[in-house]
Amino acid sequence: AKEISWVSPKPMKMSAPTSAVFAKPTTAVIASGPFSCAKDLKYEPLNDLLDFVVAENPDALILCGPLVDVENAFIKTGTCGDLDFDDVALNVTQTIERKLGFNDGDSKIKTKVIYVPSVRDAMLDAVFPQPAPKRESLFTSSTRAYVASNPGTFEINGAVFSVVSHDILKHLSAQEISKGFATKERLTRLATHVVSQANAYPLYPADPSACLDAAHADALALDVTPDVLILPSDLKTFAEVLEVSDVGKVVCVNPGRLARGDLGGTLAKLVVHAKPPTPSASA
């Protein structure tokens, strides 16, 4: 390298004073696939997750792919009976809609579902950055189900969330050289690269498993610094506040995997308590 160029992080978006997040706490449950154990397609961890959501009734359920994991034993061998991968995905989303009362006008569950795809989704193209799948191909209800791109940025009650379902933390970990840092410090430092460089994949050359399409690398840029950054990873789960120069504080969450091998895994529940903006002296 002949020189090092500094890339400034993007400014944070100022939520409108009338945003719902200032009126009451906003709750989000975050889970990352696989949603079924590695040797079956029973989706027992997903059913347990949905039971938890019904009990908690959060504002949003953020699901990070894969929904139909290419590493699952049945998906690998294509032994899904008469179902193709699209059918398996539709069966899963129909379970979500049924258990969360999507088609029940009297349901007390009002949780909105946001799905962020993964390059490990068998029914989608394995390319990163990844466009949002067609909502109607996954969900029959359009009022409470949403799909995002990967990486994706969206708002929940005025709070800004950014999600990268790719395991960028693991890829950065394999390439970074450091000395004298504790594990906890290292994970937050790795996550800080995403915010400080305003890029969802601040690594080049990319990891061989990244499926990176460099022709669309501009879609990896973060237009704003989010309030909450979600980075699902196989590495240690954490929820930490990132201190980013010239920007402020960003909450970063690694919810882990909902299923790990033949066992259940972890999820995250996040409650946002936002303080209303202080009126300026000139107002």
Characterize the overall form: globular
Alpha-beta classification? alpha/beta
The percent range for strand residues is 15-25%
Largest sheet: 5 strands, mixed
Overall strand count: 12
Tell me what the structure shows.
It is built from six helices and twelve strands. Strands 4-3-2-1-12 form a five-stranded mixed beta sheet, with no helix packed on it. A five-stranded mixed beta sheet has the order 5-6-7-9-8, covered by helices on one side. Strands 10-11 form a two-stranded antiparallel sheet. β8 and β9 form a beta hairpin. It is globular.
Produce a short descriptive summary.
By secondary structure, the protein is of the alpha/beta class. It is 21% helix and 20% strand.
Fold topology:
Layout: H1 20-23, E1 26-32, H2 44-56, E2 60-64, H3 73-77, H4 85-99, E3 112-116, E4 145-147, E5 152-156, E6 159-163, H5 168-175, H6 183-196, E7 228-230, E8 238-244, E9 248-254, E10 259-260, E11 263-264, E12 268-272
Parallel strand pairs: 1-2, 2-3, 3-4, 6-7, 7-9
Antiparallel strand pairs: 1-12, 5-6, 8-9, 10-11
From the structure above, extract its key features:
single chain, alpha/beta, 12 strands, globular, 283 residues, five-stranded mixed β-sheet
